[in-house]
Design brief:
The protein is an all-alpha fold and about 300 residues long. The protein contains 16 helices and no strands. Mean pLDDT is about 95; it is low at about 305-310.
Length: about 300
């Protein structure tokens, strides 16, 4: 793995302040999400790593703002953040080094600004005031307004000029699966925080109450509900087939590892059954290491200019 300085140079990032801005963004990701950061550093083509790290840092900033404080405080904070982001994208300047780095990444990679504005708008309308999903249609609206643009403000930077229609549609399928698996894997902690991410219509269909889930009742009805939700997640994961062909060559090893990790986690959820109501379902240690090392071994093979992100 090349040094960070070498990686910045490979990405064509020059100037002390700009290099420091990207370093600041990358360190923030490392502190908050060390596993995704290390996956990027180990598997992504070096010229892509700084902009993707800045994109992930920006996505995290918006997520954190949308989830901190009361709904009114979240809305106010997001409005202020949106103003700062708009100013940074327009001028390239900001008091915040993260926004300076992200603005540079957006402009240098040619990511259409509408994905950024759509994500910020969705953070206010879908995430900051989140009170659960009424039904499947409500869940799909959440994906369209928030989760899908949230993924593309990060992964969209892999494409010079932004994602095309087919690529964007592929990431829409990807985020559908990822969100379903994440909601199931984090069901216990979400319920503890007062957040229910299974649609209320699904509970009613199986004659399950929210209290049944909060009290971790292991009943036939609860098991049937969870089995139905994991089947939907499995169907969504199967629908992501072909995402590697839509990803840029420099990011394919990362996406291959991510999809394998998603499949591993979903299998763990399926095996856990009603136990997902008592504790979150993590990745474990051995499987992620095995997947990462296998992906690293494949990525270390001979590379063309396209494989290097050029």
């Amino acid at each position: 793995m090349p040094s960070w300085r070498t990686t910045l140079t490979a990405a064509g990032i020059s100037g002390t302040r700009l290099r420091d801005d990207y370093t600041h963004a990358a360190r923030g990701v490392l502190r908050r999400e060390p596993a995704p950061y290390l996956t990027l550093r180990l598997l992504a083509a070096p010229p892509l790593v700084p902009c993707l790290a800045a994109g992930l840092a920006f996505m995290n900033l918006v997520d954190d703002t949308a989830e901190t404080g009361t709904p009114a405080q979240r809305t106010t904070a997001l409005a202020a953040l949106s103003g700062r982001v708009e100013a940074a994208l327009a001028s390239g300047e900001s008091p915040d080094p993260l926004l300076r780095a992200y603005s540079h990444a957006v402009h240098s990679r040619g990511l259409p600004a509408h994905w950024v504005s759509r994500f910020l708008a969705g953070a206010a309308t879908a995430e900051a005031v989140f009170d659960g999903f009424a039904d499947e249609e409500d869940f799909q609206t959440y994906l369209d307004e928030y989760a899908w643009p949230g993924v593309l403000v990060f992964t969209g930077l892999q494409y010079q000029g932004g994602p095309g229609l087919e690529q964007a549609a592929g990431w829409r399928r990807f985020v559908d699966a990822a969100q379903r698996i994440d909601f199931l894997a984090d069901l216990a902690s979400d319920l503890a925080d007062g957040r229910l991410c299974i649609p209320r219509a699904s509970l009613a269909e199986h004659s399950v109450t929210r209290a049944d889930l909060e009290r971790a009742h292991d009943t036939p009805a609860v098991r049937a509900l969870l089995a139905a939700e994991t089947r939907r997640a499995r169907t969504a994961l199967d629908a992501t087939d072909g995402i590697l062909e839509l990803a840029g060559p420099g990011l394919r090893p990362v996406i291959a590892a991510m999809t394998q990790l998603m499949a591993h986690q979903l299998t763990a959820v399926e095996r856990a059954g009603a136990a997902v109501l008592r504790r979150d379902t993590g990745y474990g240690l051995s499987a992620p290491l095995r997947i990462l090392l296998r992906a690293r071994s494949r990525a270390a093979g001979p590379r063309t200019a396209a494989d290097r992100g050029q």
